[in-house]
Design goal:
Layout lengths: L6 H4 L12 H5 L4 H30 L9 H36 L7 H19 L28 H29 L12 H33 L13 H34 L6 H14 L15 H29 L8 H22 L3 H7 L3 H31 L5 H27 L16 H29 L39 H6 L14 H8 L12 H4 L9 H14 L3 H4 L2 H24 L4
Helix pairs in contact: 3-4, 3-5, 3-15, 4-5, 4-6, 4-8, 4-13, 5-6, 5-19, 6-7, 6-19, 7-8, 7-9, 8-10, 8-11, 8-13, 9-10, 10-11, 11-13, 11-14, 13-14, 14-15, 19-21
């Protein structure tokens, strides 16, 4: 049982957030919560872009011999759909939760490097615009989101289509790496007193694993992109067989990044579902330690299975066997998580909110995607299914049925904490059922069309091959998803403008972020909390739920002395300054540093569209601007 002395000093009342408004406040913010909201808004905007691209693709394939778009436009749309959804939607949606939740869950007042955090967002925004704008000028990337070389070299992909893709992904990689370093430092060094690694909420744990995966995975694709960039701009031949190179080098480098990327996309959702299911089951997460170790194991094994994407290239029986076994093994820690979520709900007092419905749907749909994924661990089976629509069905069940459904549950769960307002449960139910029905209508028939031999990446097909009905059903499913997306948008915008009526703990949750007002004040905690267990709020409000967990008494004297704040102070002061809490200054400098960096990358396009002199001058100019912005940023006071 929790100590009777523990609750009193654990959470001093924090006042409401100070009012920051106006465009300038958003352009200059370094507040992790506001940056999280910027990520959320931007990635949801890109979700509509990616959804529109998918809708046009499905219209083209709804009937045989479709003529909605040309083959050239189709190639651009399906390339940008994959790129948008992976790099501009799912990853930054996770980043929105990283930014908003991690400091709150570990009892910190901000991230370790607030300005680097802002820089990361602005790089993402400008990089996303850079890689998306070509869609409107018919020069968008058109070789698939995987960009296989040498098909993406100048010989086979002339023009500037691929240039935008190569440069855009490098820009977005800078954003991801900057954020990863920031969050690793934050989680290691800024946890509240008593917040040991064994007490961190599961979302923070899964996010922690993801940051290490980002740091380790992105260098591989960065190398691949640099090689391709040099091939395209400077005439090198890193992927040219006639020059003594190996075309398969691209596939190895890309998939060493590409398969860990799957878990970079999914593990944050695992964390969100692990926060939602205990809250609405009203019981602690089953098997916390096993859930932590299974997440770490997924991150580790994720780097050892990349070549199951390459069973068709002729690596040989030994390599196929090793990577096949590795792929089967990674299903074990993933299966452990599914059983633990089910065990968490088993016997619980379930509340079927919209967030809980999305979480349950995530478990079911991700299981379907996982089962078909294990099928691809067998090289003979994979050889029959690779490059067919069976693969399209598999990874959409993992990434849409998994990541997107789980993230939607996270939005409904944390929207009151982010904004102080509730999303409508009635509209949320319409959104959920449209998404759930539409997702299954869209992607489940693809298993059958794939088994009947329908290849991926074809913009049209002849009648009479057994694919017609399945493709029509898939297109109808996209209509359902589109309706659900517009219902969500209406719900989101209406609630955003509504009255602030959400209390600090609207769901009767157990973790630290629910101990402060909704939305949180700029400094998060008036007094840094003293953490005594994994569910400190339940220790206070519902001790019967945590009776079996281990707890410890807080050392209030040490904490008060270290932070200079009386732990029992109940203050109504509304500013950090009045509380004596130093906060980082807002600044526009990260925005300019990000803008000039993106301009530097973009200036390389002039090597293909203008004279060498123009390209050199533009590169030198943007380099000087970028160096000046970074120097000004680094030499200005922090607070």
């Amino acid at each position: 049982m929790a100590s009777s002395a523990a609750p009193a000093p654990a959470f001093a009342a924090a006042p409401a957030a100070t009012g920051q408004s106006g465009l300038w406040s958003w352009l200059t913010t370094v507040d992790h919560k506001r940056i999280g909201m910027l990520y959320l808004w931007t990635s949801l905007a890109f979700l509509f872009v990616g959804g529109t691209e998918a809708f046009i693709l499905r219209l083209q394939l709804a009937h045989p011999n479709g003529q909605v778009v040309s083959a050239e436009v189709y190639n651009q749309l399906f390339t940008m759909h994959g790129t948008t959804m992976i790099f501009l939607v799912v990853m930054p949606l996770s980043a929105a939760f990283f930014n908003f939740l991690i400091p709150l869950q570990i009892g910190a007042r901000d991230v370790a490097f607030p300005r680097l955090n802002a820089f990361s967002y602005w790089v993402y925004l400008f990089g996303g615009i850079f890689i998306t704008l070509p869609v409107f000028f018919n020069v968008a990337p058109d070789a698939g989101w995987f960009g296989y070389a040498p098909l993406t070299t100048n010989q086979f992909s002339p023009g500037i289509h691929i240039d935008f893709w190569v440069l855009g992904l490098q820009i977005l990689g800078v954003s991801s790496l900057a954020a990863a370093v920031n969050f690793i430092t934050t989680i290691i060094h800024m946890r509240a007193p008593g917040m040991s690694m064994a007490r961190m909420p599961m979302f923070t744990w899964m996010s922690f694993v993801v940051q290490f995966m980002l740091v380790l995975a992105f260098p591989a694709i960065t190398i691949a992109l640099f090689f391709l960039q040099f091939d395209r701009f400077f005439g090198t031949q890193f992927y040219e067989l006639a020059a003594g190179a190996d075309p398969l080098l691209w596939q190895h480098l890309f998939w060493i990044f590409g398969h860990p990327e799957v878990y970079i996309l999914v593990l944050p959702t695992f964390g969100l579902v692990s926060e939602i299911t205990p809250t609405f089951s009203e019981k602690p997460l089953f098997g916390y330690n096993v859930m932590v170790f299974s997440g770490i194991l997924i991150g580790f094994l994720g780097f050892g299975v990349w070549a199951h994407h390459m069973f068709a290239v002729g690596m040989g029986a030994t390599a196929d066997t090793i990577f096949g076994i590795g792929t089967m093994l990674i299903g074990i820690p993933t299966g452990i998580k599914i059983f633990n979520w089910i065990a968490t709900m088993w016997g619980g007092n379930l509340r079927f909110t919209v967030a809980m419905k999305f979480a349950i749907a995530f478990v079911a749909l991700f299981l379907i995607g996982g089962v078909s994924g294990v099928m691809h661990a067998s090289p003979p089976t994979d050889l029959q299914q690779t490059d067919t629509y069976f693969i399209v069905a598999h990874f959409h069940y993992v990434l849409f049925g998994g990541s997107v459904m789980g993230i939607m549950g996270g939005i409904y769960h944390y929207f009151p904490k982010m904004t102080g307002r509730f999303l409508s449960e009635k509209l949320g139910n319409w959104h959920f059922w449209m998404f759930f029905i539409g997702m299954n209508l869209t992607f489940f028939p693809m298993h059958f069309s794939g088994m009947l031999g329908m290849p991926r990446r074809v913009y049209t097909y002849d009648a009479g091959q057994g694919w017609d009905t399945f493709n029509l059903i898939s297109t109808i499913g996209v209509v359902f998803q589109g309706i659900g997306l517009f219902v969500f948008a209406y719900n989101f915008l209406k609630s955003w403008k509504g009255e602030k009526n959400a209390p600090g703990d609207p769901w009767s949750a157990g973790t630290l972020e629910w101990s402060i007002p909704s939305p949180p004040p700029e400094y998060n905690f008036a007094q840094l909390p003293i953490v005594t267990s994994r569910y400190p709020l339940w220790d206070i409000k519902h001790p019967e739920r945590t009776a079996e967990l281990r707890h410890s008494d807080p050392d209030t004297a040490v904490v008060a002395e270290a932070h200079g704040v009386p732990m029992l102070e109940q203050t109504e002061t509304r500013t950090a300054k009045a509380l004596g809490i130093p906060m980082p200054f807002p600044t526009i400098k990260p925005l300019f540093a990000a803008l000039f960096m993106v301009m530097l990358f973009a200036s390389l396009i002039f090597l293909h569209t203008a004279s060498l002199q123009v390209a050199v001058v533009s590169m030198i100019g943007t380099t000087l601007l970028f160096i000046g912005a970074v120097y000004s940023w680094l030499t200005s006071p922090l607070e």
